[in-house]
Amino acid sequence: MNKLNTKMFQMSFTNLVKQPKEVITQFMNSFDIVLTDCDGVLWLAEEPIEGSAEVINTLKELGKRVFFVTNNSCKIRDDFVKKAKKMNFKCEKDDIISTAYLAAKYLKSKGFQKKVYVVGAKALSQELELVGIKSIGVGPDAVQTSFKNTLEEFKADPDIGAVIVGDDEHFSYVKMFKAATYLSNPDVLFVGTNSDEQDPNRYDYIVPGTGTIIIAVKTAAQREPFIVGKPEAYIADFIKNEYGMDPKRTLMIGDRCNTDILLGTRCGFQTMLVLSGITTFKEATQRKQSKKQEEKDLVPDVYLEKLGDLLAYMN
Ligand SMILES: [Mg+2]
Fold it and tell me: Active site: which residues (predicted)?
């Protein structure tokens, strides 16, 4: 999908709720489909962000099609529905577009008939199973006695036709070795869920994101993966094919410029940043002032302190 320059509003990091009422109303009427990121927009880990459920539910009542779009590959869609409902979001399974689900649908769309070696969470193997694809690899797999013994004992499964790499708390040298070995066959497909460098956490720790695992595997394999998550456009192509979508009448809401907003820019969506998550006001301001196009692509059309601020303008 190419970047389109046909947006209805030519705004750049504009505080939406500081605009005249008619501009806000025009903006609200300018989209039919909403893609919203989850963590940092709707909730922070297990805590709902005040007002987000009311805004999402009102958007649905107004007839907007809302998709919950997440790079998290550690949950199946049913788990997301449960989590969203617990926080009072009106949400059905078909509203959830997660990367474990997308990876499974991607292989299915290719007519994939073989088995997958998964570097990732159980959710990945469960989503594959739901589309009828078998997999191996989930769970701990570390050196037992010595790596030399691991090499001697390893028997490659001849049925493996794809390697999917997602978030994996059990990621190990052994898994990297097995993934790269399978990928030495050029017919084996290489799919990654997302490239996030770090994952949000409630502590002041650095939690490595899926991107770090993918870089390790691709460095060993000397191959590039097909990434299904944000900011890659596959997610938008998927929604377009499954449900239909006019990019110009689509709004992307996110808290992270280098995934959420970049996806929106690449696909020609309108973009809204909320400051309740990763990207700060200062970072977004610096990007707006930058002369580099790659920085400008990360600048949202509009922003809000938090999604709930919209509620007062939705009647
Ligand atoms: Mg987020």
Answer: 37, 39
Dihedrals phi, psi of 303, to nearest 5 degrees: -140, 160
Q: Ligand 1 centre and the CA of 246: distance in Å?
A: 23
Q: Which pLDDT tens digit goes with each residue over 147-169?
A: 999 999 999 999 999 999 999 99
Domain that holds residue 286: 14-71+231-313
Q: How far apart are alpha carbons 163 and 178 in whole angstroms?
A: 10
**Residue 230 annotated as part of some ligand binding site:** yes
Show the tokens assigned to 117.
């070696």
Residue whose C-alpha is closest to residue 218's, from 263, 174, 164, 147? 164
Q: Are residues 222 and 240 part of one domain? A: no
196 is in an annotated binding site: no
Q: Is the pTM of this model over 0.85?
A: yes
Ligand 1 centroid – CA 220 distance (Å): 29
Amino acid at the residue 270: Q
Q: Check whether 148 is labelled as a binding-site residue.
A: no
pLDDT tens-digit series, residues 251-288: 999 999 999 999 999 999 999 999 999 999 999 999 99
Tokens of 189: 């497909």
- Which of 181, 199, 227 is the last residue before a domain boundary? 227
Same domain? For 44 and 114 the reply is no
* 292 Cα–ligand 1 center, Å: 24
Decide which of 193, 227, 261 is a domain's last residue: 227
Task: Tell me whether residue 76 is in a domain.
Answer: no
Nearest to 220, CA basis, from 178, 186, 187: 178
Taking the centre of ligand 1 as the mean of its atom positions, its distance from the CA of residue 7, in whole angstroms, is 24
- Please determine, for residue 2, whether its predicted confidence score (pLDDT) is greater than 60: no
Q: Is 309 annotated as a binding residue?
A: no
